[in-house]
Design brief:
The complex is a heterodimer of chains A (119) and B (114).
Chain A: E1 4-5, E2 10-14, E3 19-21, E4 24-25, E5 32-39, E6 46-52, E7 60-61, E8 64-69, E9 74-79, E10 88-96, H1 97-100, E11 108-109, E12 113-118
Parallel strand pairs in A: 2-12
Antiparallel strand pairs in A: 1-4, 3-9, 5-6, 5-10, 7-8, 8-9, 10-11, 10-12
Chain B: E1 5-7, E2 10-13, E3 19-24, E4 31-38, E5 42-50, E6 53-57, E7 64-68, E8 74-78, E9 87-94, E10 104-105, E11 109-113
Parallel strand pairs in B: 2-11
Antiparallel strand pairs in B: 1-3, 3-8, 4-5, 4-9, 5-6, 7-8, 9-10, 9-11
Chain lengths: 119, 114
């Protein structure tokens, strides 16, 4: 089974509007971490935001916020006030607890959502 | 401070050849992970190195190997290249500390196998 599911291959949003990118995850661990990365056409993965499974508050980083619903196993990314420069591929990723003992470098990624911001 | 540096950025090889990719992590980062990104399979974990030791390996054949040097720089090698090895190879470094332990990625090495 897929550990990370991103159901939206592509999303379009007008500049200055808000957009939500969906992410659901599958794990049997109680302790895990969820990440969102942005990948522009240049290829570099850029870290956006992190949410730990025990964090009670939804994470926020500037215009990015993570809508964490633990019971539904969802971790949607909300981008407020979209900008043209936000056009990129967005990946949701998870680190599981059982990987933390032996390694902290393994993330499971979804297939991504291509966001296009139009003027 | 300097980010994660990957070289070469682009390379073209033919089937059967071998290739070595290099990754210089952020100063102070001791963990280096490698990922393969293809349109068909997405982003897949290859392996992670910490203190010159391979800590974890993804589900890839033995043709894929890597190593880490005492200065934390890492290389990955793919031998007997196949067409399906054409991909963007991403390296990421981290402090390897509990908590978020954010991976910082390089710009990648784009390999084309003809």
């Amino acid at each position: 089974a897929q550990k990370i599911t991103q159901t939206q291959p592509g999303m379009f949003v007008q500049e200055k509007e808000a957009v939500t990118l969906d992410c659901t995850y599958d794990t049997s661990d109680q302790s895990y971490g969820l990440f969102w990365y942005k990948q522009p056409s240049s290829g570099e993965m850029i870290f956006l935001i992190y949410q730990g499974s025990y964090d009670e508050q939804n994470a926020t980083e500037g215009r990015y916020s993570l809508n964490f619903q633990k019971a539904r196993k969802s971790a949607n990314l909300v981008i407020s006030a979209s900008q043209l420069g936000d056009s990129a591929m967005y990946f949701c990723a998870m680190r599981e607890k059982k990987d933390r003992g032996s390694t902290l470098g393994r993330l499971y990624f979804g297939r991504g959502t291509q966001l296009t911001v139009w003027p | 401070k300097a980010g994660v540096t990957q070289t070469p950025r682009y390379l073209i090889k033919t089937r059967g050849q071998q290739v070595t990719l290099s990754c210089s992590p952020i100063s102070g980062h001791r963990s280096v992970s490698w990922y393969q990104q293809t349109p068909g399979q997405g982003l897949q974990f290859l392996f992670e190195y910490f203190s010159e030791t391979q800590r974890n390996k993804g589900n890839f054949p033995g043709r894929f190997s890597g190593r880490q040097f005492s200065n934390s720089r890492s290389e990955m090698n793919v031998s007997t290249l196949e067409l399906g090895d054409s991909a963007l190879y991403l390296c990421a470094s981290s402090l390897a500390q509990p908590g978020a332990n954010v991976l910082t990625f390089g710009a990648g090495s784009r390999l084309t196998v003809l």
